[in-house]
Write a structure and sequence with these properties.
The structure is a homodimer.
Chain A: E1 2-4, H1 21-33, E2 39-46, E3 63-69, E4 82-84, H2 102-115, H3 121-131, H4 144-153, H5 176-190, H6 207-218, H7 224-234, E5 237-244, E6 252-257, H8 261-264
Antiparallel strand pairs in A: 1-4, 2-3, 5-6
Chain A binds a DNA duplex through helix 7.
DNA sequence: CTTCATATACTCGAATCGAGTATAAAGGAG
DNA sequence: CTCCTTTATACTCGATTCGAGTATATGAAG
């Protein structure tokens, strides 16, 4: 989900009264979008010279990007930006229903690009196979940025100067789509070891709702019993005692996030075989 | 390990002919330090206003920091910067031999600071308990930055204007020690799911050498049999066939890193309970 | 009352993990 | 030479986690 301002990410120059960029940004977001920012982390600083193909090659525009998560709010009138799912811009990243059919055309285009340079053929081929899961354990949702970068290099997206073919997905202003891809990749990696999903949930929610949110982020369908077990043994949520009956099926218990637990537990164990003595 | 230039991190302004910052930086490092950079990733962009207490509060200095890993080289003459272990600057982060005795004094100072503000007492106390492992599962090496930030807020490090007490660890220029803490924390987290350690190893190495490198990064002692098992089943290394006999003990087999494996395997599984069908 | 859809609970074997033990091979002390 | 120290390497065992699947509960719709 991203704020839409004519297919651009919300941005501005950083003049602010605040000492820290983060604090200034928080105020700016709330003012500009009407949504208070819950979670906020620095994403990446883009400073390459050819970010804007049209401008003077001797200037360098520096963008410090942030990843923010906010709860979706009810409609706020048409003067406010609307929410738009990010799969508009990255249709090949959504594997929830099925492997997106558009992937075939993308991979065909990439293969063509790989073959077009006999010297780099093998290395390009390796990158494609890896990023799109043709080797190894299959599709890896974390590689969203690598996939976009390959498509950019191969000129399969409209941002590329000399686009060939249709241009996959909806384009964005400047290099905003690259920034968004960076954010998606970061967020997809992050949800695995830090409970940021809850910043997107309302105060009380069902387990299915939580699962569907994670699925939307990861672009994958998850295994319901195992998802519940995982959530359960992390002890991150507790029942509110209430029950919801949204249309169809057995009513579900409502849960709330236990903010306090964060301080008491190590999230996603250490993975290092520590010696104890 | 960090390059020493009078207790500062190597830095410079980013005028370069290169289109990408990363490429320019790579060239700059090699030129300046004589060490070719192996692994390089953007770390964090520091842009707060009060980074340099002495300067004009209406200017903002922006530093884009990078984390780089290089193999240690033989001495190159005294005109080149020397390597210095980072535990000079963060003695409380080295738990390889034992819990560092200096931690007692640090925690005492922090407790005093927490108590000095009755309104924030509880929240400060929580942060201290969490960062220094007094609650939950104990010491967590990944929290190096949080620990430094607490010490900075409590004015227990010399960078703070109104230092009280001795000032723990060796100070660095400007906010370089905060940057270094950021890098340590990032690297400690990274080695758990990405095989960057090998960027620090020579072409062939023993398992103990590898373990000691990881231990130096994590500041922890590891369990030898389990460390070997983990390395082994990741299939990241292979025997060279040779044997080393560095002084003392049974000679060890030499191993080399299998660069190729990276493309074929998913590193540190997905942690999401994916549905397959 | 049956069917459908969803919620929730439980099972089972495989893989992984923490912790520890056992054996092998070098050098040095006596 | 023998024993001891030191490091290398191999193996064990129980507990926990994980992938995958099954079974039962409870509402709404027809």
């Amino acid at each position: 989900m991203t704020v839409r301002l004519g297919d651009a990410l919300p941005s501005g120059s950083f003049e602010s009264d605040h000492h820290s960029l983060q604090a200034g940004l928080r105020a700016w977001i709330e003012n500009k979008t009407g949504h208070p920012a819950g979670y906020l982390e620095q994403l990446y600083t883009f400073a390459d010279r050819d970010r804007e193909p049209s401008s003077d090659p001797n200037t360098r525009r520096i963008s410090i990007s942030y990843l923010g998560l906010v709860r979706e709010q009810s409609a706020l009138g048409s003067d406010r930006p609307q929410w738009l799912g990010w799969y508009e811009y990255f249709p090949w990243e959504d594997h929830r229903d099925r492997r997106p059919p558009v992937l075939d055309a993308i991979i065909e285009g990439l293969d063509e690009w790989a073959s077009s340079d006999s010297e780099q053929h093998a290395s390009r081929r390796h990158r494609i196979d890896h990023a799109f899961g043709r080797v190894g354990p299959g599709w890896n949702e974390d590689l969203a940025l690598q996939r976009y970068e390959l498509m950019y290099e191969a000129c399969l997206v409209a941002e590329c100067g000399r686009l060939r073919g249709p241009g996959f997905g909806r384009a964005m202003a400047g290099d905003h789509r690259r920034i968004l891809a960076t954010g998606i990749a970061r967020l997809r990696a992050k949800i695995k070891y830090h409970p940021v999903v809850f910043e997107l949930m309302p105060n009380s929610f069902t387990l299915l709702g939580l699962q569907q949110t994670v699925e939307a982020l990861a672009g994958l369908r998850l295994h319901k019993p195992n998802f519940r077990r995982q959530v359960d043994q992390q002890e991150l949520i507790e029942e509110t005692g209430e029950i919801t009956s949204e249309t169809r099926g057995r009513p579900a218990k409502l849960f709330r996030y236990r903010r306090s637990i964060l301080e008491a537990r190590a999230l996603a164990g250490s993975r290092l075989p520590i010696a104890r003595d």
